[in-house]
Amino acid sequence: MVHSSKMLREAVQVATYLDDMYLDQADTRVIAVGERGGAPWAAVEHCLFYPQGGGQPADRGWLDDVEVIPVRDRESGLVVAVAPEGGKLPSLAVGQAVRVRIDVQARMTHAALHTAGHLIEAVGRLQGWEMLSNNHFPGQARIEFQAPQEDARLADPEGREEATAALRDVVAAAIADDLHVLARYEGEGRRVVHLDALHRAPCGGTHLRSLGDLAEVVLPTLKVKKGRIKVSYSATHRSH
């Protein structure tokens, strides 16, 4: 199955996963088909699937009743659905009506971790630290910082625990205040995520509506290695 350049030029995809991250299913249509590494793929007009990127794992999803993995196709720029290893897609044609859906629990888990990551970045910056990297994967979530100048508090275990306690207090206060989380498209079409007035950062991930939707945000004592401040964390979505 080989896609044509004309088909890809005409394919217009809506990133529905960014427009409404709480939407769990949608009726849409196939806009392109092709192959990736010898495996067939299909792209739909209203894309509910978040592809892995920005430190966040991909959604688990289904195209009709077939489980798929969303990936970003480099050539077309589309988010395409491929079958998991050992699986296969049904025969699909451009224009065909399909129903897409996602694993809502997985989506909420990933969104909670990504939202909590922005919050931890914000409170780290309040300490004067600069963010170096982030990871929002379950079981691996962490934000790594660097202090512009040596922070004497971090030289011993007691000081590191005090610094972590200060982070925990600010995180808990922001969650208690239920700060609003909002994404806006700003200069040059960049999508910027705001935690009310506390923080803003360019981001293409999925997030909760507000910090009050975060639950069980846990920060173990931070670690310091070769000048990098590593803040690990876990978080879940609060059930209402």
UniProtKB/TrEMBL annotation:
Keyword check for Nucleus: no
Superkingdom of this protein's organism: Bacteria
Keyword Zinc: yes
GO terms assigned for molecular function: aminoacyl-tRNA deacylase activity; metal ion binding; nucleotide binding
Family matches, as InterPro entries: Alanyl-tRNA_Editing_Enzymes, Thr/Ala-tRNA-synth_IIc_edit, Transl_B-barrel_sf
Keywords annotated in UniProt: Hydrolase, Metal-binding, Zinc
PANTHER family: ALANYL-TRNA EDITING PROTEIN (PTHR43462), ALANYL-TRNA EDITING PROTEIN AARSD1 (PTHR43462:SF1)
Protein name: Metal-dependent hydrolase
Organism: Streptomyces griseoluteus
